Each structure stands twice: as structure tokens, then as C-alpha cells.
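Supplementary notes (optional reading)

For those who missed the lab, this is the record we used. Protein: ABC transporter ATP-binding protein. Length: 258 residues.
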Amino acid sequence: MNILEVKGLSKTFGGLVANSNIDMYVEKNSITAVIGPNGAGKTTFFNMITGVYKPTSGEILLEGKPIGGLKPHIVAKYGISRTFQNIRLFNDITVLENVLIGMHNHIKANIIGTLLQLPKSKHEEEDAKKEAYRLLEYVGLADLLNEAAGNLSYGAQRRLEIARALATKPKVLLLDEPVAGMNPKETKMLTDLIQDMCKKIDLTIILIEHDMKLVMEISNHIIVLDHGEKIAEGGPEDIRTNSKVIEAYLGKGAVALA
């Protein structure tokens, strides 16, 4: 069953073609990798799915409902969340508060109720804190909930960004180069977390990643972009041995990847 469908998606900026006629079908509870050389159009593709850019043409369907061109906060409310290549946390507030910010789309209490500490607002606030703590436990950061986000290690900041994304209650989570800059221990920890999210919390994951060992290890399906166009797709073995992919991106040593 496909949870997300992309049909003929294109984006141009003036005379520059960033993406051209891309199709993608993502099965529920799967991990799909989007790979390609720098400048291939991967981040533009993510930006269209999440509402940052309006497609020039094409469709984006989430559970059969069109979402292409909607504002990012509406797309998030429908069930798509993301992390970024460059970490975007609120560094001066606590780890817990960062996760609570991710819940704002789902908190119903208004500002007056919060300021007056009305019973309904207080109850909802306590529930939100409990859920935020649960998410921090899940990503291994519960013992740092009162620490300023900017004081965390790089790997911990990545996991906090994921916890904040999970706080939006997504159906589909987009991860933009989640292990970039990580050491082997941090990479292993995040790889295990990605696989666990897909298997245990009813989540579908799409990721952009240059770590080909990780891509080949965890992906159910791989999409390859080059110069804004899809040049190949398939399972890890299909991509590992695809001559177009080897030429455009992976290099001749790709067939030796485990």
C-alpha cells in the first residue's frame, strides 16, 4: 500500500530546471532513500514534498489526498515532517522545550487559557510534557531534558531534531542527510533508531544520504537523481549494479559495497 505518491513532479526557477518529471511511490512503513551527486535536486525535491516550494507541475498525494503546493504547516498537520541537513534547533532553550515546540499543531489550548492556567489548559500542558519526555526517552535523551539544546553533542542534537519531528505525529518522516558529520558510534546509534522507527512506531521514512553503506543496509527502495531527473530506482542490489548510477554517482567501486 502506497502512503505517498509523487507524479510528474517538476520545479523550475526562472530558466533553471531543478527537478523534472519525477515519479515516486512510497510504501507504508518502508525506508526509501533518495540519492545522487551534489546539485542533483534532492533537497529541492524534499522542499516540494514538505511545502517549502510549490511545484511548477505534477502531483503529490498523501494517502490519496493532494498536498502539493500547500503551506508547510498544513503539510505537517496532514502528517509529513522533516529534519534538515543543517540542524535547526532552538539552541538557547531546553531539550524538553524544543520537543514541546514540535507539538504546537496538536495542542488545542488557546493562549488565554494557558495564561490563566485554566484546568483544561493545565491538563493539556501536562500531557504534552509527558509525551515529550516519552519521545526523549525513545531517542535516548531523557536524562538531558533540562539541558540547553546548544550544549548537546552533535549526534545528540541530531536525535533531538528527530524527537521534535516525531512530536508532530508524522505519518511520513523525511530525513535530510541524517548521519552527515557523525562518527561511527553516532552513525550506528542513529541507524538503529531509523530502523526502529520504521518497524515499531508505524512510520514511513524517506531519507537523503551520501553514506552509501548505510543506504544499502537499511533501504527498501532507492531513487537516484542526477541533474534534477530520476535516472534509476529499485532495491539496493538493483542500484548497486546499475551502470547509469555507477557512472553518475557511485563510482566503479560501488559493486564492492556490502
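If you only remember one thing from this example: The beta strands are 2-13, 16-27, 31-35, 57-62, 65-66, 80-82, 172-176, 204-208, 221-226, 229-234.
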